[in-house]
From TrEMBL:
Glycoprotein recorded as keyword: no
Acidic residues composition bias: residue spans: 340-349
One Pfam family named in its UniProt record: DHHC
Top-level EC class as recorded in UniProt: transferase
Similarity section: Belongs to the DHHC palmitoyltransferase family.
GO MF annotation, one: protein-cysteine S-palmitoyltransferase activity
UniProt lineage: Eukaryota, Metazoa, Chordata, Craniata, Vertebrata
Keywords, sorted A to Z: Acyltransferase, Membrane, Transferase, Transmembrane, Transmembrane helix
Name the UniProt record assigns to this protein: Palmitoyltransferase
UniProt main location, coarse: membrane
EC number: 2.3.1.225
Record bears the keyword Ribosomal protein: no
Catalysed reactions listed for this entry: L-cysteinyl-[protein] + hexadecanoyl-CoA = S-hexadecanoyl-L-cysteinyl-[protein] + CoA
Amino acid sequence: MMLIPTHHFRDIERKPEYLQPEKCVPPPHPGPVGTMWFIRDGCGIACAIVTWFLVLYAEFVVLFVMLIPSRDYVYSVINGIVFNLLAFLALASHCRAMLTDPGAVPKGNATKEFIESLQLKPGQVVYKCPKCCSIKPDRAHHCSVCKRCIRKMDHHCPWVNNCVGENNQKYFVLFTMYIALISLHALIMVGFHFLHCFEEDWTNQQQAYRLPREGTAEARTSLHEIKQPLKSSTECSSFSPPTTVILLILLCFEGLLFLIFTSVMFGTQVHSICTDETGIERLKRKHQPRERRASWKSVKETFGGDFSPNWFNPFSRPCDPEPLSDRDWVRQVASLSDMDNTETTEEQSEERKDEDSVEVIDE
């Protein structure tokens, strides 16, 4: 139960008519177990498609430009397995983060009957979201894109086309981590590829592309003389030098950009988990003080129990949140005496003492 700062009290409505029950349709029956969660947002869908395209582009360049033409079989196999495994885990984490319910509050439960069933006592209030007509539990915030109130909402990420909340934060952390790792791995392989191929093999390959255009007997003789070196040069890249350079430069730019971006996001999310404070709560820290859980307990709840390989597995679920009870919907005011000192009329003070009144905060 959360203590409400006293400066919010002037926004409290205490009349049952404020609930406007005719505008709050009772929540629908819960769907079948395993129902897929998907946000129909054009921008988010486009960003998700771009994310997959960029990962598949990196996969194409790494495999067909650097690894398959390589003369070092062991180098190609080891790096190919590592890169493909990380890419698979990154895309799997992306799907789980995108298709998992982040912790949506039941929509339309702010009915008069439900509020009355909570049996609020003097000094207790509930938050009502006027946008989705829901009673908001502690640490829930409304997302204008998902059009729902989300428990422990950190932010809405268009790259996963979903909110990052209580149920999918683990998958989002894994997604940023694996994208950062494959970006770093790709940059290292590009560096080795340039050092290994650029000076020797590509110089011979450029000569081979120029010689047939001359059309002379001397040129054909020269082409025959460098035929053997060309076999090794084509093994270094199956594309022409200009095409290879362009593909590698684009991969370098993509890898560097996403390495920086996802590393920052990964660090931010780990910090939020360890401090038990979401991004939204960090912005409202001065206005909504609250108690925090221990760092290790917060980490275990996010990743699913004690440390194990399942922490890094996007197919394992985090700890299931406890079902919301009546106590979770209700919040306790900081002090009834402070409440009396706020800017209220004598009539409002009398209403506050009435146990039958309903105190609702419109957020």
